[in-house]
Amino acid sequence: MPLFNLNRKPKAEYKIVSGRHENLDFVGHYDFKLLKYKSKSSYPYMLGISIQGFATDDRKLPTNDARPTIDVFEDKLTDLVKKSTESIYAGHSFWNGALEVIFYIRDYESVIKALESEAKKKSALTFTFRIDSDPRWQQLDYLTYTR
């Protein structure tokens, strides 16, 4: 047995990314070690969950008062994704009044059902989601590119 497995997900190394996109500030954190992950094709789908409905400042970033509510809601959705399918949390970013949470997943059918069911529940925050085929994780490359 080798001392380490290059296909195993490496220990996370989150870095802050920030800049401007379409004349609006963005800020986030992503796991940069995932850029070198050897088994990307084992998690061929990118799941993006966009959380809205929180208070923002004049730059359309969340207010300090909104952060605890956002964090709890993100944790709830993260737990739901992890229970629904094998997944890797890549990170998140705030931009234009929303929090975009990014996962790479093996299977999407069960997570669609779970997220659709959760979206029907009454909550202070709302969310939408999308799933894209991204076996080379190009979306993560784009999101971690600092502008």
Describe the structure.
With 147 residues, the protein is α+β, with helices and mostly antiparallel strands. It has 3 helices and 6 strands. The chain has helices at residues 67-84, 109-119, 138-144; strands spanning 14-21, 24-31, 45-52, 87-95, 98-105, 126-133. The protein has a 6-stranded antiparallel sheet with strand order 1-2-4-5-3-6, with helices on both faces. Strand 4 (87-95) and strand 5 (98-105) form a beta hairpin. Helix 1 (67-84) runs antiparallel to helix 2 (109-119). The longest helix is centred in the middle third of the chain and has 18 residues, at 67-84. The N and C termini lie far apart (41 Å). The model is unreliable at 1-7 (pLDDT under 50).
**Can you name the CATH architecture?**
2-Layer Sandwich
Q: Regarding CATH, which class?
A: Alpha Beta
Unreliable stretches, pLDDT < 50, 5 or more residues? 1-7
Shape: globular
Helix content: 10-25%
List the helices and strands and how they pair.
Blueprint: E1 14-21, E2 24-31, E3 45-52, H1 67-84, E4 87-95, E5 98-105, H2 109-119, E6 126-133, H3 138-144
Antiparallel strand pairs: 1-2, 2-4, 3-5, 3-6, 4-5
Outline of the structure:
It contains three helices and six strands. By secondary structure, it is an alpha+beta fold.
